[in-house]
Specification:
Elements: H1 7-18, E1 28-30, H2 35-50, E2 54-57, E3 63-67, E4 77-82, E5 85-89, H3 95-110, E6 119-124, H4 137-143, H5 148-152
Parallel strand pairs: 4-6
Antiparallel strand pairs: 1-5, 2-3, 3-6
Helix pairs in contact: 1-3
């Protein structure tokens, strides 16, 4: 199997997400659930649907983009990161993990790989504590590390 990475596509995706910011370049600001964050999330959703991934969103805003495997009952393999960014952040914080996971799927698809286990690209919500004062909010919610009353209090 010949697996190759399309670095031009990766850089184009990273550059497209970098302009989703409420601060001027070269820094960026993408507070969770802000217009800039929603714009970046919409871009990633589009890129995922273009390669045939099925997207679902949980109640906290985590996105799951799934490439269905031939044995969907098996646990999925997952990779990803976050899109939100603290004020005046670097352009690659979080986005490399998201776009890297998407490119991994694209490269496997180009190689005509057919997964047995489903593969999911994860986009975690609220990794940064900028809006709610709690870091890794999305991943904590997935892991069950937050009680429902804590989530409702947000």
């Amino acid at each position: 199997m010949d697996i190759s990475i399309d670095t031009a596509a990766v850089m184009a995706d990273l550059n497209a997400i970098a302009i989703c910011s409420s601060s001027p370049p070269p820094s960026l600001t993408r507070i969770v659930y802000s217009a800039a964050d929603l714009e970046a999330r919409a871009y990633v959703r589009t890129r995922c649907t273009q390669i045939g991934l099925t997207i679902r969103q949980d109640g906290i805003g985590n996105l799951f983009a799934r490439w269905q495997g031939s044995a969907p009952g098996l646990p999925a393999v997952a990779s990803g990161s976050h899109l939100d960014a603290i004020p005046d952040s670097g352009r690659y914080d979080g986005t490399v993990g998201v776009i890297g996971a998407i490119e991994a799927v694209r490269s496997l698809q180009r190689a005509n790989f057919q997964p047995r286990r489903s593969i999911e690209v994860l986009i975690f919500a609220a990794e940064k504590p900028t809006r709610f004062g709690i870091g890794c909010l999305g991943s904590r919610a997935i892991a069950g590390a937050l009680r429902p009353d804590q989530l409702r209090a947000l």
